[in-house]
Write a structure and sequence with these properties.
Distance between the termini: 58 Å
CATH class: Alpha Beta
CATH architecture: 3-Layer(aba) Sandwich
Strand content: 15-25%
CATH topology: Rossmann fold
Largest sheet: 7 strands, parallel
Shape: globular
């Protein structure tokens, strides 16, 4: 498969690119950082996806993974507007087989920073819009909406034992996901899956189902 992934220099995007490469797929990455993957199956474009005029001309993309994202840094411009621009440029065409967006559990719960929540909530709705429009090609579009993932964006929590303990109190499985685990979900939803579409799948260790029921004894 001809795979395009944004945000491949680190985190979930890098893990996803490596997973596709391990399984023999040709991967093109777009990131505002220099490449961090060395493979004959990988090519890299140094580009900030917010600069839509600079997006490379690529044809016949079969799988698109929108993984590039940020937190408290022009979240709506990067996480939503740029994601839309990338998808419209590369995925709305007859060769497409699957689109996978990286959303967030907070797009369902609202339990994050305001602009970040808004950007990820937009991804939730846009995923359904794209699923409807590319169905005529026999293609699917879904989002994986993680809770906590062990990436650089979360270093301030990961490196603070007191905060980390509080986070674990809210996480039923008592751990966060590794980027590789999210990459496995991405691969399943884009390569193995051929029928599930327009869905926003929460992968958060049970955070969003946690509740504190208060009642009289």
């Amino acid at each position: 498969m001809k795979v395009l992934i944004t945000g491949t220099s680190r985190g979930i995007g890098k893990a996803a690119a490596e997973y596709f490469i391990e399984n023999g797929h040709t991967v093109t990455g777009i990131d505002r950082l220099e490449k961090s993957i060395e493979s004959s199956l990988y090519s890299h474009y140094l580009c900030d996806i917010r600069n839509t005029d600079m997006l490379p001309d690529l044809s016949d993309i079969e799988i698109l993974v929108n993984s590039a994202g940020t937190q408290n840094e022009d979240d709506i411009d990067t996480n939503l507007k740029a994601l839309i621009a990338v998808t419209e440029k590369y995925a709305i065409q007859p060769k497409i087989k699957s689109v996978l967006n990286i959303g967030s559990a907070c797009g369902h719960t609202g339990a994050e920073f305001p602009e970040y929540c808004a950007s990820k909530g937009g991804v939730t709705a846009y995923t359904k819009n794209v699923a409807f429009r590319i169905a005529k090609y026999g293609a699917t579009c879904n989002s994986i909406d993680p809770g906590g993932v062990i990436t650089h964006l979360n270093d301030c929590v990961l490196n603070d034992p007191a905060l980390w303990a509080k986070v674990m109190d809210e996480t039923p499985l008592k751990r966060w996901a590794a980027p590789r685990e999210i990459a496995e979900w991405i691969y399943f939803m884009t390569v193995t899956n051929r029928f599930c579409t327009g869905q926003n799948i929460i992968v958060d260790g049970g955070e969003s189902i946690n509740f504190h029921f208060i009642w009289k004894d």
